[in-house]
Each structure stands twice: as C-alpha cells, then as structure tokens.
Amino acid sequence: MRFRTLSLLIVLVAIAVFAILNWTAFMTPTTLSLGVADVKAPLGLVMLGVLVFIAALFLVFVVYLQTSVLFESRRHAKVLQANRDLADKAEASRFTELHEFLEAELKRQASRDAESSAAVLARLDQLERDLRAAVEQSGVSLSAYIGELEDRLERVAHGLTSQPPG
C-alpha cells in the first residue's frame, strides 16, 4: 500500500516539475478545435487542467470507495455482532435446557434411589421378621427337645431309683 502511494506521489511530483520547467511552452497560445468552433488557448494549460480534473475525479472516486467500504464494514460488523448476540442467547438457552434436564434427571435418580432404598429396607425388615420367626421356631423346637430329654432323664432316674438293688 505504501509503495503505491509513494509511486503515485513520485509521478505527481514529476508532472509538477515538468510543468514548471516548461511553463512558457505550456502558456503559448494555440488554435484549438472544439468540433463546432475554434478557440485560441494555451494547449499545455488545457492539458494540465484536464489532468487536474481527472486527478480530482479519481480522488473523489477513491473517497467514495473508501466511504462505501467503511459503511459496508460497519454494516457487516453490526450483522456480525447481532449474530454473536444470537449465538450467545442460543448457547445460554442450551445451557438452561441442559441445566433443567440435569435437574430433572437428578430428581428422577433421587426418586429411584429412594424407591430402591425403601424396597431394600422393606426386604431387610421382612428378612429380619423371617429370621426372628426361624430363631423363635428353633427356640421352640430346642425347648421341646430339651423338655423331651428331661422327661427321659427323669424316667431313667426314676427307673433307677424305683428298681431294687440287684
């Protein structure tokens, strides 16, 4: 970019130096044909005026291009910012949805855990009742066996004492 600007500046300076060095030739009047009429004017000055006019036109065109590019750039920046905002809102919405989903899943898991815990506790209570019943039944059976043994022992002891010595 600097190279272009520098080369354009060098060309303009060269034209200005050329015009200054040949100013008398530039100012020499000549007959110029305009197609419908003839005019007496300095050809160099006319050509220099045309060059200045074209340069001014080019400068206006460059300013117009720069301005349109600047406006287009600003418009793109606004659109880009709007898209960023939209993407941020969508991302925030997705985070909110994910948060709500995770909360629902955690509540569902907690309820499943509570149900499982209640089922395990109920099963443990049932097993404890069954174990107590089995222990009680074993105790009753053992008591019956012990009672039966005591009866036999008493009978044996009575039988020994009731028999005459022999």
Q: From N to C, what is the helix and strand string?
A: HHEEH
Cα-based radius of gyration, to the nearest Å: 58 Å
- The helix content is over 70%
Q: List the uncertain runs.
A: none
Major beta sheet, specifics? Answer: 2 strands, antiparallel
Strand elements, count: 2
Q: What is the 3D form?
A: rod-shaped
Give average pLDDT, whole number.
89
How would you describe the overall organization of this protein?
This protein is mainly alpha-helical. The protein is 87% helix and 6% strand. The chain has a two-stranded antiparallel sheet with strand order 1-2.
How does the SSE layout of this entry go?
Blueprint (H helix, E strand, L loop, with lengths): L1 H20 L1 H4 L2 E5 L4 E5 H120 L4
Antiparallel strand pairs: 1-2
Key words describing this protein structure:
166 residues, 2 strands, mainly alpha, rod-shaped
Structure described in brief:
The protein is mainly α and 166 residues long. It has three helices and two strands.
